[in-house]
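::Encoded backbone::
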Amino acid sequence: MSTLSIGQGFVHPGLLHSQEDLDRMRRAIAAKQEPIYAGYEVFRQNPASQATYAMQGPLAMVGRNPTVGQGTYDSDANAAHQNALMWCLTGERAYAEKAKALVNAWSGTLTSITGRDAVLMAGLGPFKMVQAAELLRYSNAGWSEADIQKTERHFKEVIYPVLREYAPFANGNWDAAAVKTVLAISIFCNDRPMFEDALRYYVNGWGDGRLTNYIINETGQGQESGRDQGHAQLGIGMLAECSEMAWHQGLDLYSYADNRLLRGFEYAAKYNLGYDEVPFVTTLDRTGKYYHQRVSAITRGQLRPLYEQVYNHYVHRRGLSAPFTQQAAEKLRPEGPGKPGADHPGYGTLFYTRPAEKASAATTKPSAPGGLVAKGQPSGVTLTWVAAVGATGYTVKRATQKGGPYAVVAQRVVAPVYTDKTTQPGAIYYYTVTASNSLGDSPNAYEVGSSAGLPAPWKQQDVGLVKVAGSAYYDGDQFRLEGAGSCIDSTSDQFQFAYVPLKGDGVIVARFVPQVSSQFSQLGLMMREGLTPGARHASLLLAPQKTGEIEMPSWAIRLVTRDADAGLTQVRNTSAPLAEPVVTFGRLVSYYWLRLERKGNTISGAISPDGQTWTPVGSVVTALKKDLYVGLPACSRLTTVSTTVRFDHVSVTGWKSSI
């Protein structure tokens, strides 16, 4: 009924259900093999699995907080996914027709996702819709090409924009929901740049949903373990769904960071099964809003249907031990629906039960590695990547311009990490990696750029005594600063600063790239006499205002100078708080241009939504020295947690290298 398909480097069907999965489920159902057959009966009897399901929508707008049609959409999304899978398992066309009707109706009607929790609205229910679309597209369901293209446009133009910058302002389950649905959309739409962006966020993002920010240490403690057990399980469940989709694309995201995902599942399963011996360290999350001192007993023992997937992968696919995950899976077996709403697909007993697999020789070449991350220092560039399934070695290649030509810099690399020490400080390089096994080499991985340290004459350092060391990287397009510290605009400066020398008059322009992680962040442009905490400066800063509401701060643009004599910061000009579309629900969500200029003793600032039309913020007269440092400051305004700030289109005119 369906065939394996490769589309622009993707395997289809290749989301939660591969062709091998569908074949395995069908064989087990026909043989009434347990426990799969019991799982199938639970799935088959669910109201959302019926070809007679009565469509609840569609609606032109849905939203969450305030709620607008959330239950309507989630119900139809569950039914679309479950009917599409019933079609693939039974071959009964009525299921395909129902799934197509649901996907087509919503793709042709829904135009807006609203509310303070719009990311969750777009990241949960739509994940089910994309699952349905993938199964229909690659199962001879009679889905027209016109409807397929309409659905692609819908996912990319309505759903994806809400998720594009993920959710670094929130608890990590938000990020995880965004990442999993962006991965699903990218595979369905055969969009490799989108896929790679989501992978990189999973392994190197700046929010709570990055794998090593969500499962915060090797004990498996989760970022939300101190909040409640429902959300703690929700987050790891969605990270697991990301890993299953990556596995079907030939990437071993499951094993990343020494099987950190398994550690998170073992921790959650152990505690929710009633064991008390779970370690806990006091944590403040990346946003600076959520501080937990002990593991939470709220909803403890209410196991969510997500353990079969992880148990079957680590134990049956990989031959590892997962005793508490196994106990949780056995207790829930056969798993039912992923309540509430569309939080989880559920039904893991049907979807994921597989026999134990023995190690065997490779049968195909490996896929290209994914999620390359490059971090440059003057001494070299360190690369990491998501391992390719079945790879026995890797070759690292480097170019001095985008797209190559590439030269090999390392061969027979065993682990998915390599440091290139043959670089020149300040030079920009572009890297790719290929995987290999006994049958040959993979295609090149999606390219990533990095400067070996900041490009000359840029430098970086922490100003003031910070408890968390900062950093600054440049990838050929974007500066990424990691900064902690208390503030930028006081006499006790603590922040990360990337800078170049400036002699005399000059202008710095940069575009802020959303979003920041800390909701207390200060960031912007700075002209500064020295690199000591009390140095005089003039700065154009994006900063939250003291509203008393950390969940929804108001943001403003401020032109700030430091007095020469008193050593005190004075706000000489302040604009009105930034409004839509730059700030939504207290979050900096739009790209935004900043410009700071010195002409003689006059410092002026301006802002722009597009880099073309500029609005003056104001100007000040201050007798700063002729020789200055000009650059990009960033701080979290948190002593123990840094923030990530990104800028692109950075230009400085007037700098001289005499300092």
Remarks:
- The first strand starts at residue 5 and ends at 7.
- Residues 70-90 form the longest helix (21 residues).
- Confidence is low (pLDDT under 50) at residues 1-8.
